[in-house]
Design a protein that fits this description.
The chain is flat, with a radius of gyration of 19 Å. By secondary structure, the chain is an alpha+beta fold. The protein has 1 helix and 4 strands; from the N terminus they run ββββα. The protein is 15% helix and 37% strand.
């Protein structure tokens, strides 16, 4: 599916949400039904109340998601600036401790 050129395309799709809160894994994954490809700049909004999972459990729920596809210009901008924004995720720590 190609990117829209001038206007964003928006559509709803069923999805499966898996939330894990265990010692081995803390994650939330969304799998869209059908052959929906999500590309740089696209947005996925999962509908429904927040899923709260107690420690030690994994929960899977069926939901509906709204996919908003980025325009071709937004995709190019996201690809061009994505590497720069990655550095915001890095955390650096400097210590004043002097080693002998």
């Amino acid at each position: 599916m190609s990117a829209p050129i001038l206007f964003r395309r928006r559509f709803e799709v069923p999805c499966t949400v898996e939330v894990s809160h265990t010692f081995e894994s803390l994650h939330a994954h969304v799998a869209l039904d059908g052959d929906v490809a999500v590309a740089p700049g696209d947005e996925v909004l999962v509908h429904g109340a927040p899923i709260e999972v107690p420690y030690g459990e994994v929960r899977t729920e069926r939901r509906t998601a709204t996919v908003t596809q980025a325009t071709i210009w937004e995709r190019m901008w996201t690809r061009a600036t994505g590497d720069l924004e990655f550095m915001e995720l890095c955390e650096f720590s400097f210590s004043e401790e002097v080693r002998p």
